Amino acid sequence: MSIGEITTLLRGGILEVLLLAAPLLFSALVVGLVVAILQATTSIQEQTLTFVPKIIAILLVLAFLGGWMFSSLEDYTIRLFRMIPDMAR
Question: Which letter does DSSP use for residue 69 in this model?
């Protein structure tokens, strides 16, 4: 296995992680920003007010996109396992 193939393999893994994590992180970012604006507007500084909506948003994203996330991860894992015989040469 050459350095180029290893680099391609690592790049694919990093891209897969980014694609799977992006919807969760983006939803938490948007909800956190909205809650922070509401807190600044109303002068309410309750810490749990930021935590609970983020958890709910992440769970909703997982409920809607969980199937796609797991199928994408399954496809990537199958591709990796199919590459094992080529790596042994």
Answer: H
CA–CA dist 37, 31 (Å, integer) = 10
Report the sign of the C-alpha dihedral through residues 59, 61, 67, 71, in that order: negative
How does pLDDT run across 36-52, given as a tens digit for each residue? 999 889 888 887 888 89
Which residues, other chains included, contact 16 with Cβ-Cβ below 8 Å and sequence gap of 6+?
72, 73, 76
In percent, the amount of the chain with pLDDT more than 70 equals 100
Dump pLDDT digits (tens) for 67-78.
999 999 999 999
CB neighbourhood size of 57 (10 A):
20
Distance CA 79, CA 81 (A): 6
